[in-house]
Amino acid sequence: MAHGVCSGHVLHCLGSCLADAAQAICNSSSSSSRTSSSSTARSMPSLLQLLGLQLDAELLPAVMHCLLMVLTLFSGPLAYQLHFQCQQQQQPQQQQQQQRCIRFRRPSIHSVRDCIVAPVTEEWCFRACMVPLLWMEGAQLSTIILVAPLFFGVGHFHHVHFLVKQGWSVRQALQMVCFQLLYTTAFGWYATWVFCWTGKLLPAIAVHAFSNLMGVPPFGDMAAGRGGAAWMVLTVAGIAAFAWLMRAGIAGWQQYTSVYSHQAVHAG
What we know:
Helices cover 72% and strands 0% of the residues. By secondary structure, it is mostly helical. α1 packs parallel to α12 (228-247), α6 (109-136) crosses α9 and α9 packs antiparallel against α10 (201-214). The longest helix has 29 residues, at 170-198. It is globular, with a radius of gyration of 20 Å. The two termini are 37 Å apart. Mean pLDDT is 78; it is low at 1-5, 28-41, 94-104 and 264-268.
């Protein structure tokens, strides 16, 4: 129960932050949208620009900026997991060096799927392919950011069948998949915003891979364990910092050469 309540609060906060950012995009782009509303056809950029595949000097800064934001968002769960792993490693050997404590799981076929195959294929489908189609049809940028990720979330609904085959009841499977739908849709809002802001696919793939590496944060364990209040305060602070970085921080400092940037693709 604690896990569900904490997860619900965190997802609500994250959803509010992303909704505010999308509203800011809509407000800041209203004048540009009005001037272009008289014509349904938009000027045709190059195919590489539409798909976010252009290679230029902005690519690496875009990846680093977006990873910094998602690292800030996961600051609480990330600090908790690193602390927990360090404690486990130090139990048999107290003299073990601190840097050796930070060890992630060994690579496996599942980790390759989660951190490489899934981010590349899903971002290609739901960002590089879906966003340009909607944009060229005249959809508002705020609508694209808020609505397109719903398809990404619903794409995980087939997990019900898998969970039932694993022995879960239908009710339990539906509850878990509904939570996954909310979580993946919330992430999809951010990934779509990243794609539109930077005009590049690689930053969206990078934040997707990192999010899959982290998994769903163990909010219940964080709140119930030792120092639970501190972990939750750090989590809330990370969400607040993430919202600031989107609306008035990095997104306001840096503008990328995006085919969508003429509609003021930023949350500042």
